[in-house]
Amino acid sequence: MPPINLAIVGVGKIARDQHLPSIAGNPDLQLVAAASRNGAVEGIPNFLTIEAMLDAVPFIDAVSLCMPPQFRYDAAYKAICAGKHVFLEKPPGATLSEVADLEALAIENGVSLFASWHSRYAAAVEAAKSFLASTNIQSVHVVWKEDVRHWHPNQDWIWQAGGLGVFDPGINALSIITHILPTSIFLRNATLEFPENRHAPIAADLNFTNSDNISVHAEFDWRQIGEQTWDIIAETSAGKMVLAEGGSKLTIDHTVVPVSSETEYAALYRQFARLIKNGESDVDLAPLRHVADSFMLGKRVFVAAFHD
Questions:
Q1: Which residues are designated catalytic?
Q2: DSSP assignment, residue 103?
Q3: Spatial separation of the C-alpha atoms in residues 223 and 217, rounded to whole Å
Q4: Do strands 85-88 and 62-65 pair parallel, antiparallel, or not at all (unpaired)?
Q5: What's residue 258's pLDDT?
Q6: Which residue from 36, 50, 133, 201 has the least number of CB within 10 angstroms?
Q7: Diameter of the chain by CA atoms?
Q8: Which residues on neighbouring strands pair with residue 86, listed in sequence order?
Q9: Digit-coded pLDDT (tens) for 201-235
Q10: If pLDDT is split at 50, 70 and 90, which confidence band does 194 have?
Q11: Could you give the 3-state DSSP secondary structure of residue 28?
């Protein structure tokens, strides 16, 4: 089978750091075009808009969308209506309604839609999921703290409505939790801290339970200085499980568990190619639903102004 002709829209930091190397390393994919207002990819045709790209390069099979979530729906709508398979960076959209509409549109047009959650493909996540399915969980504590100045310098869109604020990284933790826990969890209460000069939260404290009343406590913060923290700790009947460094390392009862060496985005693009070949879609909205619930139930607390 010939490679899938793939185009990328939004040539920014995440595209250059993760998407382009992963596409280049996948023999099932061939990058044939790019569209971006502020970037370009050498060696292929580049366009300012997705409309111009789709008109000029009709043999595109699939499109990977890497722009901010507030602008993703319109691009995905155009690509799906043009008969292209679509890869959505996380979060898959600014609202649940947008993504639900894209899912229905993909079915109608007979194309694959992939709502990617890259942290689910971290090296140790599947091993953690298998362990938790084999034991009794007593409690879970999520600590996801990083420095927004380092990871998102001068990116104003993340502070705007729809940009999600601290939930931009926090949704990575939620994507792992909703994958590795054997039962669904439900938000019971939350506190969201909003800088007085921003429209999105800089920190969040979330409390969930499941049907067995197991506590899941999540702390998200964008003001972390020094070492960054992306850990999920579960107390279980078989000992403490620590899924550390964003899901890349796992210890169970102080014993290190061997994990896969495949990188997250390489695994994502392998999954996207598989979905296209099998005529399937993968659109799990559980992480985004928890973000929506947090804004619905969360107590808003205003804190000092934040400046990059």
A1: 90
A2: H
A3: 19
A4: parallel
A5: 94
A6: 133
A7: 59
A8: 63, 113
A9: 999 999 999 988 999 999 999 999 999 999 999 99
A10: very high
A11: coil
